[in-house]
Amino acid sequence: MLILGIESSCDETAAALVLDGNTILSSSVASQIDVHHPFGGVVPELASRKHIESIVPVVEDALDKAGKRPDQIDAIAVTQGPGLIGSLLVGFSFAKGYACSLGIPWVGVNHLEGHVNSVFLTPEPPAFPFTALLASGGHTSIYHAVSHTELEIMGRTRDDAAGEAYDKVAKMLGLGYPGGSAIDSLARKGNPLKIPFPKPYLDKSAFDFSFSGIKTAVSRYIQKHSETFSHEITDIAAGFQESVVEVLTHKLILAAEVKGVSHVAVVGGVAANSHLRKSVEKQASLKGLSVHIPPADLCGDNAAMIAAIGYHYLKQGFTSDMNSDVFSKIITN
Ligand code: KG4
Ligand code: ZN
User: Fold this and answer.
1) Pick the CATH number of 125-293 from 3.40.50.1970, 1.10.150.120, 3.40.50.300, 3.30.420.40
2) Model pTM score
3) Run means of pLDDT, 10 residues per run, the chain, 333 residues
4) Does residue 91 have its Cβ closer than 6 Å to ligand 1?
5) Is residue 166 lining ligand 1, measured as CB closer than 6 Å?
6) How far is ligand 1, taken at its centre, from the CA of residue 275, in Å?
7) Per-residue DSSP letters for 227-266?
8) N or C of the chain: less Cβ packing under 10 Å?
């Protein structure tokens, strides 16, 4: 089944053509970093406008790169939520109209389920059940993945997401937006033990996260050393990263042990982090767990992961209709 995936939940407009939920024929991503960079974060109104400009060229680019015509697409999968409503609406409305004009089925999917399913676009995907750590700009969660579409949540962040903490600390250090990859590179030159920031464990035996405390600790350190901190940026980045990565790794490995699985996955934008990748590989190998982390271009927002999860819903007979609408947040009790 040839699926056109469409993603527009935040600040990337993306389209991809994926065969049978696992083979990427093309993946096109139009990033809006240049638009939002001067503001130090995503400006929702500007994001929506940019999605409107980019959606048609991005879909055309994905078709061109795959060497496919629109009449060869079997179905469309599109992000329904969570995300920025004005951004989601662009991709979602486009998908509705395009599917209608082509006379093909379409399905709205959950962006977070898309991230977890990004591991099935790699040559050696995990076997079910497995434990997945999703760390992105908006979410930090641990799932027990029973099947492609059944993800049992084991823990989530109580406040800031890991990516959000990276972005806020990067802003404090004057590194611009988004800051995750900038901290990743700077931290490689710093000493992670020189400035020990608190390890935000909450409860060491439970799976919820909290990253607002470490963000505040970095902010206090910078205020206290306002004259000198600019000479210590690499050590601050390394110390902050050490704390975040240690907690993420510990909780993922513990969750896998509790569930007795033999595969773990790390997905979402923060999964591109070089220290997190090494740390999970190291700790997992000590426990005999096999590790699945997508390449960096599949960690950040993309439409191939949306097509991948859409395939499994469509195969189960799920489709969306003209009354379907986007949602901004997952409602939890
Ligand atoms: O999954 P994603 O592309 O978008 C959301 O769904 O939120 O994640 C974006 C987040 C941003 O906070 C960004 O700073 C972070 O992923 N990120 C990183 C790295 N690359 C991107 N964080 C740490 N290290 C990286 N190398
Ligand atoms: Zn995402």
Assistant:
1) 3.30.420.40
2) 0.96
3) 98 97 98 91 95 98 98 98 98 98 98 98 97 96 98 96 96 91 97 94 93 95 94 97 98 98 98 98 98 98 98 98 93 53
4) no
5) yes
6) 14
7) TTGGGSHHHHHHHHHHHHHHHHHHHHHHHHHHHT-SEEEE
8) C
